[in-house]
Amino acid sequence: MASGLVFIRGGAEIEGLKRRGRKLSGKYFYLRFARDERGPRFVVVVSTKYDKRATRRNRIRRQVKEVLRQGFRERTYPKKIAAVIVPLKTERPADFADLQKDLLVALNKIR
Questions:
Q1: I need a labelling partner for 64 at 20 to 30 A (CA). Which of 16, 25, 26, 82 fits?
Q2: How far is CA 67 from CA 11, 49, 52, in A?
Q3: Tens digits of residue pLDDT in 21-42
Q4: Residues forming beta bridges with residue 29, ordered by sequence position
């Protein structure tokens, strides 16, 4: 069992989560998740459909990972979960507080 937060890197595992995972969406995010006994495991997928510029895709990826790290430290979401998080394109970029609130509310719906 993992002792901390883990970010998934394997392509086959991500595809498996996309196929077999349950769906959940919020205002800024789309989630595919499944129960996983190995601990909290996440992957953040930001495609070029979100934005053509890599700097903006990387920024949202970093923000989501920071929300997940803070939530892990504060124990604000389920610990036995694996999830694919896909940010949704919005008309204007959301600030960090809005992203944090939306993602944590979505993760807490899983319980």
A1: 16
A2: 23, 22, 23
A3: 899 988 999 999 999 888 899 9
A4: 87
Biggest CA-to-CA distance, the chain: 40
Instruction: Assess contact for 32 and 17: CB atoms under 8 A.
Output: yes
pTM: 0.87
CATH of 6-108, one of 3.40.1620.10, 3.30.230.10, 3.30.70.2860, 3.40.50.2300: 3.30.230.10
Query: Of residues 33 and 2, which shows the higher confidence score?
Result: 33
Beta bridge partners of 33: 22, 83
The answer, yes or no, to whether residue 1 has pLDDT greater than 50, is no
Q: Which residues contact 42 (CB under 8 A, 6 or more apart)?
A: 5, 6, 7, 8, 68, 82, 83, 84, 85
- Position 3 scores a pLDDT of 54
